[in-house]
Amino acid sequence: MSKVISSISACLLVGLLLAGCSSNNSSNNAAASGSSSSSASASAAPSSSSAPSDTASPSASAAPNEKALVPEKSPLGDIPDSQQFVKYSSATGKYSLEVPEGWARTEQGADVSFISKLDGVQVSVITADTAPTIESTKSDLVKNGRAVKIVSVKEVKLHNEKAIKASYSSNSEPNSVTGKQVRQDNETYYFVKGNQAAVLTMWAPLGADNIDQWNKMSGSFGWDTK
Questions:
Q1: Residues 76, 61, 150, 211: is their CA dihedral positive or negative?
Q2: CB-based burial, 84-93: b 16+ in 10 Å, e otherwise
């Protein structure tokens, strides 16, 4: 498999580390304008040194024999229609996008995550000597995820950015405190520029209705032109 596929795998693992909010990561308020490891210029509430006990994360570890969990009947994962969004900019990653105001932010170099209980969004920047394809994306998600069920993988154009969009369900990683997992919806976008790829992933409990908010975030992503 090409170098970018193994890189995407590594990127997904980064998502687990980010969602765990390790004490070694920098946590900031995205609404504040102070300096940070990613030179953020957006807003969200500061993240704590460890993830809340009910926080889920993207599926990052391969579990070939794991069975899909039964979705919760009334999942608590809808992003309110009244949710405000603010612009986040990464000087290190040279990209920007709009993110929910007030979500806990964790940064690690060019990578960032914003988490609110069982909902989350993260961006990881990886080296991509070869651009991902529809088939390689499908294969990698299934191989490296937890009970992944692909809904669709296709090429899309969002404003001025081309991307590969993957929609799929999966089991979350076990919570580091409780061991609890949930079945979740995921959308991942691969934005390639030169030999770099920004991997944008959004997740929520399966059945939550976040299509408008996810479209807003993915549609706002852009590489810096300077």
A1: positive
A2: ebeebbbbbb
In this predicted model, what pLDDT tens digit does every residue of 103-144 receive, in sequence order? 999 999 999 999 999 999 999 999 988 889 999 999 999 999
pTM over 0.70: yes
Contact 155, 164 (CB under 8 A): yes
What's the CATH fold of domain 3-223? Protein Transport Mog1p; Chain A (3.40.1000)
Q: What is the 3-state secondary structure (H, E, C) of the chain?
A: CCHHHHHHHHHHHHHHHHHCCCCCCEEECCCCCCCCCCCCCCCCCECCCCCCCCCCCCCCCCECCCCCCCCCCCCCCCCCCCCCEEEEEECCCCEEEEEECCCEEEEECCEEEEEECCEEEEEEEEECCCCCCHHHHHHHHHHHCECCEEEEEEEEEECCEEEEEEEEEEECCCCCCCCCCCEEEEEEEEEEECCEEEEEEEEEECCCCCHHHHHHHHHHCEECCC
The string of pLDDT tens digits covering residues 73-90 is 777 889 999 999 999 999
Give the domain ranges of the chain.
3-223
C-alpha dihedral sign at 108, 29, 120, 92: negative
